[in-house]
Fold each of these.
Amino acid sequence: MRNRLQHALCELDALERNARAESPLHRLDARAKLLVTAVFLATMLSIPLSRLSEILLYALYPILTASACGMRLGTLLRRSLVVIPFVALIGVFNLFYDRIPVFRIGPLTITDGWIAFLSIVLRGVLSVGALLVLIGSTGFFEICRAMQRLGVPRFFTVQLLFVYRYLYVLIDEAIRMSQAREARSFDRRSLPLAVWGTVIGQLLIRTLDRAEQIHRAMLARGFTGRIPDYGAHRTHWRREETVYLLAWSAALLLARAIGPVETLTHLLR
């Protein structure tokens, strides 16, 4: 358990370290990257479930942006696959209700339910991949500050940032409790089921106590409920941001409006 928690903490640190790298995408204003990601999610999620090929086309965005910011595609895919159990639980019911045959591959019949199921899973993977690229090229603090500069209410941006920071506190306290358990359990690998409720309650109490200490320290240092502008790499809107925003937005909206894969398929037929 401790190894898995340490691995999760290392994954979060790796994203933040990648956000401090140097690339043309890193140097862009966070607002431009945030707006392009919002356009990508809006256009990709609005595609009907039956048009699986059109959703596959949108995989170009996370692939190209990940390559531009120096993220490994294998690592990005591995991190994006974490969402599969959750979205699969949502889409699995389509397998039982949508049984209209679409085409056959040998003895295997592909139904509308399978197309919808694969579309839901692919949507989840691409959405998480785009968000991971955004965090890996910007940093979560800069994303929240960009949302604040775009006019998002500050109570939402501050709470979002606190939730992200709370993950570090939660994982760190869980690692400490795991180390204490291993030192007192005499090599017992798992906890009894009856103890898990107490462990989770103790973890919640410990993390809340530490979060209160952090909050008092922030108030003592002048925290006013707003994400400060100092102490961060603040960029200004330039021509590069305008070109990046217009180029990607036009490409994504055009792909959504025209449907190039479906159009090409009709032309070939």
Amino acid sequence: MYSPLPRNSSMKYTYPILTYLIVFLLVPINSMAQKGKLYTKIDQLAKAEEQKVIEWRQYFHANPELSNREFKTAEKIAEHLKSLGMEVSTGIAHTGVVGILKGGKPGPVVGLRADIDALPVTERTPVAFASKVTSTYNNVETGVMHACGHDTHTAILMGVAEVLTKVKNDLKGTVKFIFQPAEEGAPQGEEGGAKLMVKEGVLDNPKVDAVFGLHISAGTHVGQVGYRPGGIMAAADRFVIKVHGVQSHGSRPWGGVDPIVVSAQIINGLQTIVSRQTELTKEAAVVTVGMIRGGVRNNIIPEEVEMIGTIRTLDSEMQKKIHDKIRLTATKIAESAGASAEVDIQIGYPVTYNDLELTPKAAKVLERVAGKENVRNIQAITGAEDFSFYQEKIPGFYFFIGGCPKDTPVGEAAAHHTPDFYIDESGMKTGLNALLHLTVDYMNGFPGQ
């Protein structure tokens, strides 16, 4: 009889070795099969959840609330999370809501964030659920609209919460759902947004190991995804320059020091900071004067002119250098004309910085979810996002999903923060699936990578 094993004195050791080898080979195969079943189950649940997500989005779109005033929005979110049996905290950073979902197995804590506030914009879209809400912003009556897509972010994360709750026994770790107010900025004189959420301990108890966030884009076609390692969105700082001159009659400018002319020279000088003094092959930068005011009458040269503007940078060293150059340029130009200038630079949002170790792993997950042909490494954006405050503390990954209808040329899509801003709701399923797979993959250590 043929025997696959040699008949010798060491035969008694061969059987245990073969047994160990078989077990060693089968365990990872079985583990991968279990993970595959979980992904399949998640995909099926996500598909069944899509209509709910759309309905939630339409509710939030029809009932928008301004920053730090998202009372009804927070109430609906909290009600949903409680219905899922989660541990829910409310009133964080004024109106923020946090839900904690504990998986059936030990593992890391994953943070998922959605912003929930709307903008002081009067809606002009033809959709049946268009906002009719009005409010007061900076003492001005205005319409209120989800003109940036935060309604879609909120609805997507509510869908993610429901799906993951249904598979919680298979999850290795904990998920912290962060519904954050005031991403667009707190009202004057108030704190708010991600900075206040972090200050009030949203990343603690339990401590979050990594955080994921997304933004829908009206300028990207449905089904497409964009990401970037490192700085994906700029730091946003505000500056105020006050130029002090000597008031005089408009017919005798030599009798005083004209702060209006000096301000014009300073504005031109500020533009050379970026165009001639900044290493633009390293990263982009922007210095913009958005407001200037001074004077009360045509024939009076005023005593003072005030300029207010924004600084956008994608590198912390460049940020510091540009701040220094703004101070130097304004004060020295003013001095050269016999005037003086005060420069106040207020630090705003940091750079939205995608962790360099986490990003390539997350990108592979996005390629699996959306298809490799639909995932792009995009250029940096000079807009800003307060998701950056989370990324200052822990590794984070932020990406964009498409919301532009496939039959609409990207260049014709209405911009964010405008009355005609429009989102194709079929794009939301990409965000739903992406956050689900990123969460599970992170918990499982990104298997197969």
Amino acid sequence: MTDLSIKLTGIGFRAVKKAQEDNTKKGIPNVCCINGKIVYQLPNRTIT
């Protein structure tokens, strides 16, 4: 990876992490894909 790619990946990672934290504070579940399955992380941090 080039230095630019590494920097952009880091920026994207931090932005996603902040958005997930904001969603949790607002009571909105986070949606992601684990092993091809769509899962939800509820505001109390449980995964369904």
